[in-house]
Design brief:
The chain is an alpha/beta fold. It contains 8 helices and 14 strands. The chain has an 11-stranded mixed beta sheet, sandwiched between helices. The longest helix has 12 residues.
Length: 276
């Protein structure tokens, strides 16, 4: 991770090592200390694929774009979170052996500085977890609770009572927000803010992102773009769901070029901030 990346925006700067790029940079503005700051991260191909359905019918991050240098920055963002936002679908994929991790921060030696950053800033060894789900059709891994992490399941008042009771018996705090077919991004974030969280990192998919963006609750979006075209007709992009009216505006905060990413083309790391 010492191989250098190059800043393109806001102004070209001297090359720097990849490690620490997101760990060292300011995350939230100073006036956000008394509110919940929400951010998300995706890795995608040049033609916009974040997941592609395989022959087994499951969607997963394509091997053409998943790479250890992007994973490093994913972990750095996780290190800065009080709580991770996930989904029932993620835990179903985890149970089937198709998810990347049991939610970071990674315990490997390569990420010792991320864990040290949390200690130095008075954070728990691992972020808590908030699962947004209407179906409640998933099982929580015992590892999360064994690590002493608080696990909250944010759902609707209409969610299945037996499934809610099963998750509560497993150690989760089930929070019923409102009626309707979907979990409101705004109400979910209000619930987390009311419990004292200040940094929430969405590590799940495009449908949860839509819920956050539609309610104007996403503050920053980190996107790794691998310079490869992969095609495929059954795929997901960063955002899935109904048309946003009006379209939401975002400004480019920074852009880095990584010539040491996958293949000869490399990749780029961008951060976008919500424009108010």
């Amino acid at each position: 991770m010492e191989r250098e990346i190059h800043r393109i925006h806001p102004a070209p700067a001297d090359p720097r090592p990849l490690a620490g790029t997101y760990l060292d940079a300011p995350l939230a503005p100073e006036d956000a200390d008394d509110r919940l700051f929400v951010y998300a991260n995706f890795v995608r191909s040049l033609d916009g694929r974040i997941s592609v359905r395989g022959a087994d019918g499951r969607e997963r991050v394509p091997g053409d774009v998943a790479n250890p240098r992007d994973w490093r920055l994913f972990q750095e963002l996780a290190a800065r979170a009080d709580v991770l936002l996930s989904s029932g679908r993620y835990f179903r994929e985890l149970a089937a052996g198709h998810a990347q991790d049991v939610l970071p921060v990674d315990s490997g030696e390569a990420f010792a500085d991320c864990r040290a950053w949390r200690r130095e800033h008075g954070l728990a060894p691992q972020p808590d977890v908030a699962v947004l789900s209407t179906s409640l059709d998933f099982t929580l891994p015992e590892t999360l609770l064994e690590q002493g992490r608080r696990v909250m399941v944010l759902t609707t008042r209409d969610a299945d009572e037996m499934r809610a009771s099963r998750l509560a018996a497993a150690g989760a705090e089930v929070i019923r927000l409102d009626s309707g077919p979907h979990v409101s991004g705004g109400r979910a974030m209000d619930a987390l803010a009311g419990r004292g969280y200040r940094r929430a990192y969405s590590v799940t998919g495009p449908w949860v992102l839509h819920a956050l963006v539609a309610d104007d609750r996403l503050d920053a979006l980190f996107v790794t773009t691998v310079h490869r075209l992969i095609g495929g007709t059954d795929y997901a992009g960063i955002l899935e769901g109904g048309r946003l009216e009006p379209a939401r505006e975002w400004t480019l905060r920074w852009l880095y070029h990584d010539p040491h990413g996958p293949g000869p083309g490399g990749q780029q790391f961008a951060r976008y901030d919500r424009y108010d």
